[in-house]
């Protein structure tokens, strides 16, 4: 479903990603693991066609991010890390509906979808309130609903649990389970090893722009003879020599 | 679909803006309430100051003359005898000191010239008023003496005025009032068109980028140009609203402010000049909106955007101030080819009631070209890779 083919991204003289390749299968929750600044967000931005690879290509659902960016955009929903990116003077419903209309959805379709997402994310009590004063957890729910409003096949989640409390992060992980059951393909980036361990069977580990490992967690454990993912991560990173 | 996206983004931007208290205060409350209220306060304070200055005019007069009785006859004048007149004048207890030297009237009767010393405080408006009324009385007293001297010489007062000149103005009343306002209105309109969009343009790109909404929006299947068009429309609407609010504000100030009863003279516009005015305003709004959005795209942060935007104000103010004292016939022809200058010149012609069709054609045509240029540039910057990503 997502095919990353020898992707390099440079910003002037700085190489953010170098010759990275991995593949995410349809219906899979795939982990993109790396420290802050490893290049995870740059990779996500290229998948979302916000940035263009300097070399190589990425195909999402069979469409190239370089040649068919609009087809790619139609099929993905992305939740960027850090700021949740909501319009604080609009209500939760207005925020979600606005993004729905950007995907060409009709009013009735948007309303039905909002109703469904509101139930799934338990947002009914604050759906018609302006998002400005919301807590981080409430905002994150609205941002997720906004990401999913057009029912995308591929969901890109860039450090989605950053800043969430334990309850909200747990609710988030349950939601990922629900989405996986619906057959969605999910690429989940994080620097939290425990989280990746709970959600993903396969991962790509990036360190300073280079791919260090791509495959199942089980094979990684067998290869290094370690169970603890934090220890594994440190061993792989230190062994990279970068 | 393309039009629907533009309209949806535009509607959202307007809804978002009108829920912001800062927008209401900046666009409507300040120009429509605060500015006229400040002028009203200035006017009423000026009136009460004048009233007070007329009601009580304490003077210190030394010496004797027929002039003393005339000064005493001025309404509100009261002669005071302070211990230290100079200090009383500085302290505001006296409005003026009049020193009449010995033999003042005798010198005048003998046909000579006599000195009169009037001390006043130019920093005190009430003292300046006292100086004015004393000056009037001295002039009247002088006139009486001149008349007596002329009669004694067997001449009439007309002998001192051999020429009776009559000055008649050829401009119509509308044109004349337009002339007074034509200096101020282009300045006010162009500056408010530029300033009205600054905060909005900065927020719509730099602000959205900082909050992360622009990146999310651009991951949807919409074209950058659709988004930019909607944002351009939003900034233009806000600029035009700011200009309209400034015009209403000026009308209120002219009608109720300290200048008393001036009219804006919009009724004198013909359909053709009204069209030129409307097109000039719209093109200036589009030019500033395009420029502001371009600067907002170039800026790495809201703060950097604010710094860049000061250049826009400079661009609006320089032509407006340069053209303020000029009559339309004195405006150099090449000004109609320059950005902003052409708009200010045409607005000026409209309010003078003398729009030259060739100037209108050239001015509007070049303005349109400049709008196309800034919009193309801002689209180019906006489509640049990474333009929507937070730095």
From TrEMBL, chain A:
PROSITE patterns the UniProt entry points to: ABC_TRANSPORTER_2
Pfam families cross-referenced by the UniProt entry: ABC_tran
This protein's record includes keyword Cell inner membrane: no
Record-level Gene Ontology MF annotations: ATP binding; ATP hydrolysis activity
Matching InterPro entries: AAA+_ATPase (IPR003593), ABC_transporter-like_ATP-bd (IPR003439), ABC_transporter_ATP-binding (IPR050763), P-loop_NTPase (IPR027417)
Domain ABC transporter, first and last residues per copy: 2-233
Keywords: ATP-binding, Nucleotide-binding, Transport
SUPFAM superfamilies for this protein: P-loop containing nucleoside triphosphate hydrolases (SSF52540)
Family note: Belongs to the ABC transporter superfamily.
Name the UniProt record assigns to this protein: ATP-binding cassette domain-containing protein
Source organism (scientific name): Brevibacillus panacihumi
Automatic annotation (TrEMBL), chain B:
Principal place of residence: membrane
Keyword match Oxidoreductase: no
GO molecular function terms listed in the Swiss-Prot or TrEMBL record: ABC-type transporter activity
Location within or outside the cell: Membrane
Name this polypeptide is given: ABC transporter permease
Organism superkingdom: Bacteria
Natural source organism: Brevibacillus panacihumi
Keywords noted in UniProt: Membrane, Transmembrane, Transmembrane helix
GO cellular component, one term: membrane
Topology in membrane: Multi-pass membrane protein
């Amino acid at each position: 479903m997502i095919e990353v083919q020898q992707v390099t991204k440079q910003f002037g003289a700085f190489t953010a990603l170098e010759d990275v390749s991995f593949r995410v299968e349809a219906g899979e929750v795939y982990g993109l693991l790396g420290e802050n600044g490893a290049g995870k967000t740059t990779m996500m931005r290229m998948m979302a066609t916000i940035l263009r690879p300097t070399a190589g290509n990425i195909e999402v659902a069979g469409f190239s991010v370089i040649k068919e960016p609009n087809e790619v955009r139609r099929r993905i929903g992305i939740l960027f890390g850090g700021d949740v990116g909501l319009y604080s003077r609009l209500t939760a419903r207005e925020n979600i509906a606005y993004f729905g209309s950007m995907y060409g959805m009709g009013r009735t379709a948007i309303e039905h979808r909002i109703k469904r997402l509101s139930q799934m994310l338990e947002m009914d009590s604050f759906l018609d309130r302006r998002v400005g004063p919301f807590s981080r957890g409430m905002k994150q729910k609205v941002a997720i609903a906004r990401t999913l409003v057009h029912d995308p096949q591929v969901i890109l989640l860039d450090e989605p649990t950053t800043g969430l409390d334990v309850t909200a992060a747990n609710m988030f992980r349950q939601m990922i389970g629900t989405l996986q059951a619906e057959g969605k393909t999910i690429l989940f980036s994080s620097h939290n090893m425990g989280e990746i361990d709970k959600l993903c069977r396969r991962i790509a580990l990036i360190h300073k722009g280079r791919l260090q490992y791509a495959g199942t967690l089980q094979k990684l454990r067998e290869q290094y003879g370690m169970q603890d993912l934090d220890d594994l991560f440190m061993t792989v990173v230190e062994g990279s020599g970068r | 679909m393309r039009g629907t996206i533009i309209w949806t983004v535009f509607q959202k931007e307007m809804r978002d803006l009108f829920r912001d208290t800062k927008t209401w205060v900046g666009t409507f409350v300040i120009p429509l309430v605060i500015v006229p209220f400040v002028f009203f306060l200035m006017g009423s304070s000026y009136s009460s100051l004048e009233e007070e200055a007329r009601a009580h005019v304490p003077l210190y007069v030394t010496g004797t003359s027929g002039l003393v009785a005339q000064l005493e006859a001025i309404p509100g004048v009261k002669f005071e005898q302070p211990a230290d007149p100079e200090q009383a004048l500085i302290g505001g207890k006296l409005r003026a000191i009049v020193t009449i030297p010995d033999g003042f009237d005798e010198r005048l009767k003998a046909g000579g010239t006599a000195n009169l010393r009037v001390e006043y405080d130019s920093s005190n408006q009430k003292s300046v008023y006292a100086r004015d009324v004393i000056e009037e009385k001295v002039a009247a007293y002088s006139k009486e003496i001149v008349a007596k001297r002329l009669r004694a010489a067997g001449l009439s007062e007309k002998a001192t005025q051999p020429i009776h000149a009559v000055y008649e103005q050829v401009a119509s009343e509308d044109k004349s009032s337009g002339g007074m306002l034509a200096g101020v209105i282009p300045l006010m309109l162009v500056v408010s068109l530029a300033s009205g969009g600054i905060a909005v343009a900065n927020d719509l790109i730099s602000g959205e980028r900082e909050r992360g909404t622009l990146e999310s929006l651009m991951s949807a299947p919409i074209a950058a140009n659709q988004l930019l068009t909607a944002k351009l429309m939003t900034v233009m609407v806000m600029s035009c609203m700011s200009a309209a609010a400034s015009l209403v504000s000026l009308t209120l100030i002219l009608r109720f402010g300290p200048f008393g009863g001036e009219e804006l003279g919009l009724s004198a516009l013909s359909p053709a000049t009204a069209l030129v005015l409307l097109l000039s305003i719209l093109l200036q709004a589009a030019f500033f909106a395009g420029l502001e959005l371009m600067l907002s795209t170039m800026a790495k942060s809201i703060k950097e955007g604010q710094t860049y935007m000061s250049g826009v104000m400079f661009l609006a103010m320089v032509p407006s101030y340069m053209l303020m004292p000029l009559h339309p016939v004195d405006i150099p022809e090449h000004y109609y080819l320059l950005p902003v200058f052409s708009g200010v010149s045409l607005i000026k012609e409209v309010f003078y009631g003398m729009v030259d069709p060739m100037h209108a054609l050239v001015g509007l045509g070049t303005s349109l070209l400049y709008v196309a240029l800034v919009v193309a540039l801002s689209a180019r910057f906006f489509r640049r890779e990474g333009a929507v990503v937070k730095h």
